[in-house]
Amino acid sequence: MAEAETKAELGTVEQALEALLTGVGPLESETLALEQSGGRVLARDQIARLDVPAFDNSAMDGYALNAVDAGQWLAVSQRVAAGRAPEPLMPGTCARIFTGAPMPPGADCVVMQERVERDGEQALIPAEIASGDSVRGRGRDVCRDAVLLDAGTRLDAAALGHLAGQGVVEVEVRRRPRVALLSTGDEVIDPGTPLAAGQLYNTNRPMLTELLQRFGAEVISRVSVPDDFAHTQAIIQQAAEDADVVISTGGVSVGEEDHVKAALETLGQLDLWRLAIRPGKPLALGRLPKEGRLPSSHGDVRFIGLPGNPVSSFVGAWLFLRPLMGALLGCPALDALPAITAKADFATQTGPRSHYMRVTLRFTPDGAVATAFADQNSGVLSSCVGADALAVIPANTHVANGDTITCLWIKGS
Q1: Residue whose C-alpha is closest to residue 138's, from 98, 108, 180
Q2: What is the rounded CA–CA span in Å between residue 17 and residue 10?
Q3: Is 132 helix (H, G, I), strand (E, B) or coil?
Q4: Where would I find the MoaB/Mog domain in this sequence (predicted)?
Q5: How far is Cα 298 from Cα 300, in angstroms, rounded to an integer?
Q6: Closest CA to 78 of 70, 89, 68, 92
Q7: How far apart are CA 92 and CA 89, in angstroms?
Q8: Could you give the CA distance from residue 336 to residue 326 in angstroms, rounded to a whole number?
Q9: What domains can be seen in the chain, in order of their start residue?
Q10: Does the N-terminal peptide bond of residue 53 adopt cis geometry, omega within 30 degrees of 0?
Q11: pTM (predicted TM-score)
């Protein structure tokens, strides 16, 4: 049956994203101390309260003067240290000044100390010093009342420093999406328990937990689901009461022990099932109502049923979980993975499904070169460990060594 499938029978990634994201908007906001807001997403534009710098100041240790007085001996009329208010500069004099110190009124440039000859309280200033030299002007970095950071900005180290420079102590951020992570299959057990015949350890749970946290989510529960329809239905229903998003791994194929799709159709709405991609064809996207809400309301809980194979879950997380978290957080940076054009250092051919191959990237003077991991099977998680990107090979495509391909950058994204 798999060989006879055509692309038309299966959904595309674009159709899946449309089904997943339609009607999804940013969650409500909350206020946090600046020190606790690292990695969070701004809920509103942050307007600058102050000019940065707040005053004209010296960019180096040296001598402040009016540029018209350069090229001669000048009396050193004052000493200006950082954090001190200077006096107006007396005409025909200069001021000893230090990095970050306010410029004296009447001075418009600074010459570095290494270029100046001192003789007691006199300083020989070199010629050809221009107005503005070595002066950091007021508002050079930030102007008061300008947009400091846009809503939807993820607060990294530089953004936190930017806010601190404005004296900000609290910031309004989006609430993190609450995610319930379900693992299906009687054969899947947690690490730390001895393996019985036919069992395997749960690789998806820690992997997806880490990715979800990277994408800005809060994983509020991790539940194992037995291969039983009634239990599957009850656990999904309970998860929907507590979470904004319910994610399951496994149980979305067509086997007799795969109950997730049927449970979703019973409890809510199935929007899309099965994709024309490799790995990751078994995929269930839908919506679950919270009690008191209609299935079609904006308050629906989104459901994503990922395949059980770890590589399929890994790829599905980058393709679908990341943009969903971006929509819930109002964070455009999570909408799409950065695309890089590269030369293929391998050859491959696809059938009716697009292939998302795990590759490393090598950057050369002639551009990026993509090298594919030798074993691209959906159960070979080692292909994800060192991957820099996912090489997107469209359906029914032959790629020869040296051909240009598109890669989605995942390293650090």
Answers
A1: 108
A2: 14
A3: coil
A4: 180-327
A5: 6
A6: 89
A7: 8
A8: 9
A9: 7-27+176-334 (3.40.980.10), 30-51+141-174 (3.90.105.10), 57-136 (2.170.190.11), 339-409 (2.40.340.10)
A10: yes
A11: 0.89
Please give the C-alpha separations between residue 237 and each of 113, 185, 191, 234, 333, in angstroms, as whole numbers: 73, 18, 26, 5, 32
- CA torsion through residues 129, 130, 136, 138, sign: positive
Alpha carbon of 210 to those of 217, 247, 248, 317, 388: distances in Å? 10, 14, 15, 11, 17
pLDDT digits (tens, 9 = 90+) for 70-113: 999 999 999 999 999 999 999 999 999 999 999 999 999 999 99
Q: Encoding tokens for residue 324?
A: 């969903």
Which tokens hold the place of 225?
Answer: 């689901």
In order along its 413 residues, the chain shows pLDDT tens digits of 344 444 447 899 999 999 999 999 999 999 999 999 999 999 999 999 999 999 999 999 999 999 999 999 999 999 999 999 999 999 999 999 999 999 999 999 999 999 999 999 999 999 989 999 999 999 999 999 999 999 999 999 999 999 999 999 999 999 999 999 999 988 888 999 999 999 999 999 999 999 999 999 999 999 999 888 999 999 999 999 989 999 999 877 655 567 888 899 999 999 998 999 999 999 999 999 876 444 433 468 999 999 999 999 999 999 999 999 999 999 999 999 999 999 999 999 999 999 999 999 999 999 999 999 999 998 899 999 999 999 999 999 999 999 999 999 999 77
**CA distances, 345 to each of 65, 368, 376, 402 (Å):** 61, 10, 15, 6
Residue type, 369: V
